[in-house]
Amino acid sequence: MAFLFHKFQEAVKTLAKSPTFARDPRKLQFDADINRLFLYTSYNLLGKNAEEADAEEIIEMADKASVEVQQMQVQENVHFQIKSFSTSMDKILLRNEKGVNDPLELSRQENALPHCDRHSVSLGSKDPPTDNLAVPRQRSLSLAEVSKRLKDQVGYQLNVKPSQISHKDAGQGLFLDGAVDVGAVVAFYPGVVYSPAYHQYIPGYLDEQNPYLVTRHDGNVIDAQPWGSGGDEQELWSGRKMVVNKPDMEGSQVDNTDNFLERRNPLALAHFANHPAKGMLPNVMICPYNFPLTESSMRVYIPNVLFGNTEVNTKAFGNFWFKSGVPRNGESHVPTLKTVVLVATRALQDEELFLNYRLSNSKQLPEWYNPVDEEY
Prior knowledge:
Elements: H1 2-16, H2 25-46, H3 52-64, H4 67-93, H5 109-112, H6 118-122, H7 143-154, E1 156-162, E2 172-180, E3 185-188, E4 191-194, E5 213-215, E6 221-223, E7 234-238, E8 258-262, E9 284-292, E10 304-306, E11 313-317, E12 320-324, E13 336-344, E14 348-352
Parallel strand pairs: 4-10
Antiparallel strand pairs: 1-2, 2-14, 3-13, 4-6, 5-6, 7-8, 9-13, 11-12
Helix pairs in contact: 1-2, 1-3, 2-3, 2-4, 4-7
């Protein structure tokens, strides 16, 4: 397997320099990222029993297939992993109906419903759930207990603790406890998703005072600040509640979907990953993941909600974004939630996770920021 990974590493370096990707800088970077993600996640999908012929086929496809084809395959590869994660979470949290005498007997459904804490006040609903939003009865486990049991199943968990970076502003960092292979989805970026049409409503966006924002290639921004470090139960989060006290949105259509989100998601901590210090290299990278909302059984484990109207699309013109009611060419008609996950760029074991922030040179860069060589 190590030999095959070396072949993939060489393919990544070679394809990154291909004239196929030599277009405008933003498109160039996106195409190169998709190419790398295609190789990494496809390698991960091969598993431990991969054969050299399989690896050669993937490398050839990465060289010849269009970015659109590779992007669709990345989506499928990531979705496969997240589906597996959701199955593991179900095994940990959902009641075994046959296990009546199980010492981990579940609390009754009414006791498992989320209470209204500071998150549900700002993002959720105080209204009692309707029948179609009933929460399955669950084991009464804390986030820490769920995290430990997930490690028993998948081989790793995430911890937030003081960063190994020596800079005074480093603060907390994200650490992998256990081992994962290259191409593994290691973390979700949780929080509120804002399309470009609603950027003006993002707290701390215009004055750059919110350190927990991440921007996708398509302009969607995720604010992880409301998520914090998670919680010890499910909560009802609603796009409807997030436009309260915003007079300039009166009369506009808002996403009224109420969703129970599992706050005990042990992997919803990507916003704690630091940028590498000088002399260090990233070991994870951002991967856009469009979660299909038709996968209702998995929805509770996707730690995101949408701000605003799901029907509003946007199109780019230079640095400006315009609202549009017409679906973009090539987009699936399946409704999706545009999220972000972190993918391992090499085999990882018991180490801090570092993510290339790619801060814009047009802004005043912070003292701790060091640009990363994209050809690492």
